[in-house]
Structure formats: C-alpha cells, structure tokens
C-alpha cells in the first residue's frame, strides 16, 4: 500500500526482510562444513546431500557462493498460492499465510529463483494475493471506529503498512469522541 511520506514512519521493507532472514529454511549443501557457532547460534554440520536447516541469511550467503541449493518452504508453491488466492478473492476474511510470507518469498525469489519451481508464476500469484489482501485492508480501515479494528491473519508487511495510518486515525477518532461526549459534572465537595 503506497502511503504518503508523512505516514511512512514504520519499519522499511528491507528492514522487515532483515528480520525475516532469521527464520530457518532447509538447504541442500554442496559442501561439507563442521558445526559452526555464530552469534545467533550454532549451525551444521553440513554434509551433502543431506538437508540441513539454517537461517535464511546463511542460506542466501551459501547460495550466492554456489555452495547450496535452497529448498523452498511448502507454501511457496503454485498449488498452495492458487488455493490462497481463491480464498482471498472469495471470502471476506484474510486467509492464513505465514506471518512473514512476503519477506521470505522475496528473499528466496531474488536469491534462488533456480531452486523454485515456476518462479514467474509464483511472483504473479504473490502479487495477486497481495493486491486482494490490500483491498481487504482498505475495506477494513473504512469501517474503523475508535473502539476496535479486527483484521485477523494480517501478515508482518501488511501490519507495517497500515500501522502509521491506523495509529493516527485512532488518535483522531479518540479526540473526536472525547469532544462529542457530554462533560461530566464536577463535584465541588461539601
């Protein structure tokens, strides 16, 4: 959702990608490596062709050096995404997707499109899902009141996009509600 500059006070998409890069992903290593300690914890050992779970930051580093293949998450497939798109366009509520699906998908599709089956189709499906979800977000924000906004199954990127607008709108609604409420009588005492 494109927001005007004054409303862009949230975390940037690259920062969200950095946060998402801590998630674990499976790789098929092409090199052997002993168990290695990093700040975020120990990973390994890596023994080809046995799959291993490592953080996305490590997987992308190894992939860029042609030392592994990244195994895409099960949800990063044409069948799964087509099913989610059908749910998004046919139901009023948001379908359930991994919390950081947009960030993880972008990282994997940018770094390892050769490891993903049909990456172009997946990009189009992700774009369509995102547009459908943005339309639902806009609808939900139109029904905003000062007490509550319920948008279940929002993902990290979507929450980040609407946060500045939502915070500002809730402040304005609360201010208006307070002004419209009748003043309580003051008690001066006996």
From TrEMBL:
<dbReference type="GO" id="GO:0006260">
    <property type="term" value="P:DNA replication"/>
</dbReference>
<keyword id="KW-0539">Nucleus</keyword>
<comment type="subunit">
    <text>Component of the GINS complex.</text>
</comment>
<keyword id="KW-0159">Chromosome partition</keyword>
<dbReference type="GO" id="GO:0007059">
    <property type="term" value="P:chromosome segregation"/>
</dbReference>
<feature type="domain" description="DNA replication complex GINS protein PSF2 N-terminal">
    <location>
        <begin position="12"/>
        <end position="71"/>
    </location>
</feature>
<dbReference type="InterPro" id="IPR036224">
    <property type="entry name" value="GINS_bundle-like_dom_sf"/>
</dbReference>
<comment type="similarity">
    <text>Belongs to the GINS2/PSF2 family.</text>
</comment>
<keyword id="KW-0235">DNA replication</keyword>
<dbReference type="GO" id="GO:0000727">
    <property type="term" value="P:double-strand break repair via break-induced replication"/>
</dbReference>
<dbReference type="InterPro" id="IPR007257">
    <property type="entry name" value="GINS_Psf2"/>
</dbReference>
<feature type="domain" description="GINS subunit">
    <location>
        <begin position="75"/>
        <end position="170"/>
    </location>
</feature>
<dbReference type="InterPro" id="IPR056784">
    <property type="entry name" value="PSF2_N"/>
</dbReference>
<dbReference type="GO" id="GO:0000811">
    <property type="term" value="C:GINS complex"/>
</dbReference>
<dbReference type="InterPro" id="IPR021151">
    <property type="entry name" value="GINS_A"/>
</dbReference>
<protein>
    <recommendedName>
        <fullName>DNA replication complex GINS protein PSF2</fullName>
    </recommendedName>
</protein>
<dbReference type="Pfam" id="PF05916">
    <property type="entry name" value="Sld5"/>
</dbReference>
<dbReference type="Pfam" id="PF25005">
    <property type="entry name" value="PSF2_N"/>
</dbReference>
């Amino acid at each position: 959702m494109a927001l005007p500059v004054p409303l862009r006070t949230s975390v940037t998409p690259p920062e969200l990608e950095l946060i998402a890069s801590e998630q674990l992903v499976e790789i098929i290593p092409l090199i052997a490596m002993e168990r290695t300690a990093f700040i975020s914890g120990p990973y390994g050992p890596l023994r080809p062709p046995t799959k291993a779970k490592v953080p996305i930051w490590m997987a992308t580093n190894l992939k860029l050096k042609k030392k592994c293949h990244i195994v895409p998450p099960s949800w990063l497939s044409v069948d799964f995404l087509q099913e989610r798109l059908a749910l998004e366009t046919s139901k009023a509520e948001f379908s359930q997707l991994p919390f950081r699906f947009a960030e993880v998908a972008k990282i994997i599709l940018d770094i390892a499109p050769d490891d993903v089956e049909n990456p172009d189709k997946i990009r189009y499906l992700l774009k369509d899902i995102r547009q459908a979800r943005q339309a639902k977000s806009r609808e939900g924000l139109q029904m905003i009141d000062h007490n509550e906004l319920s948008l279940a199954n929002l993902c990290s990127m979507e929450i980040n996009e609407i946060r500045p607008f939502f915070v500002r709108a809730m402040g304005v609604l609360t201010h208006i509600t307070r002004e419209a409420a009748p003043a309580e009588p003051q008690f001066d005492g006996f």
